[in-house]
Every structure is written in C-alpha cells, then in structure tokens.
Amino acid sequence: MEQAQSRRVAKGLPFLHPAKLSREAFKACIAQRGWRMADVACRWSIRPEHLSRLAADEQRDLKWDDLVRALPTLTPFERACVTAARLQLVPAKPRTRKSQTTHEAVLSEVSDAVVPTVPPASPFLWEHGEEDEDEAFVPGVDGFRYNGYLSRGAELVVVQAIEDFAREQSILVVIATRLGIDPSGGAQEEYQCESATGDRRWMAPDQIDDWLVSNGKIRELR
Q1: Per-residue pLDDT tens for 139-182?
Q2: What does 182-210 look like in DSSP terms, one character per residue?
Q3: Comparing C-alpha atoms, which of 96, 115, 83 is closest to residue 182?
Q4: What is the total count of domains within the chain?
Q5: Could you tell me the residue range of the domain that residue 20 belongs to?
C-alpha cells in the first residue's frame, strides 16, 4: 500500500513542479503556435516589453509556461487576422509630425540622417500613469511602444541569436533612433544597435520583441 502511494506521489510531482521552459523553448512555443509576440502580449493584456522579459527569465512563474502551452494554434491566415485585429484594438498613437496619412507622405519624412534622442527625464509611463508590470495593454503605443523606454545608451540583451550579427546573451547598445516604416506602411520608431565588435543594425519594435530585452542599464555615450 505504501509503495503504491509512493509511486503515485512520484508520478504526480512532475505535474506540480515541472521543469521551466528555457528562453528558447518559451519563444519557440509561441512561434510554433503561429503567434507573434506583440499579439500574445495583447491577448494577455501585458506590455510587449514585459513579455520579452518573461521570455528571457527562466525563473518566471510557472503560470506563464502554462499560458504559452495553452495558446491556440493559428493558421497563417488566422495569424494575419489576429495581427490586423490587434492593430485595430491598439492603434498607433497619433503624432503631430506624422499627420500626413499616405505612405508616400510618411516616407518623405524618413531620411538617412540619424536623429539622436535625449534620454527621457522619467521612465516610460502608460497613459493612466501607472507602472505596474501586469497592467492592461493600453491602446496608442504600437509602433512607438518603446519610445521613451529605449533611448541612446540603453543596453539590450540578446535572448535569441540574430543571424550573423549577435549571439545569444551578448549585449547591444542603442546609439540612435529614427522614424521608420513598418511592413504595412505605418510609421514606427526604429533603434540603431551596436554590438561589442562595432557592427551596427537598425531594429524595429517587432524585432526587439523577438530578439532583445532591456537589462535596465544606460551607458554614457559620447
């Protein structure tokens, strides 16, 4: 009787205390189910950058692993529909200098000149002024969701190797920002990142969602 009870306990424990997903497995689960990181963040009502931090943290609460595993699998068409719905629910915040509405008008504002940003006086705040990580996903910050959150000198940790540019766990530094164009023709803020070897690459918000996470440190740049 005692042996049977011990066997049941031994069999049950892994269900209560399973191994945590690695950062690679966490993101792979999302990708395999056909989801984009920004869409998952919207579904879970959290900030995109908070989801990136969760993906990088292998000590995350088990509930996040369960949520990833429970995501419904999307077809490519459903994935496109989900992204379109998110952009409808969470539209880009109107900005005065981007009041022109045509794709050509937005392009005309984008130049090769890099405009450095001045580090913000305070951390990025959502519209209702709260800073709790688990706060609701608030409309109006999609293509500019890292505006004010990432600025010149911000360090980013690579959580997934970026082709031949940066390996996992390496550190990149934001050295400039610019106005760019997303795949659907909308405006977005882009970030030029420099590796330890001096290589540079422009990153869009969606690429930051997939590959990078801020470690909260700011370097002093010349």
Answers
A1: 345 688 788 788 999 999 888 889 889 998 899 999 999 998 88
A2: -TTS-EEEEEEEE-TTS-EEEE-HHHHHH
A3: 83
A4: 1
A5: 2-218
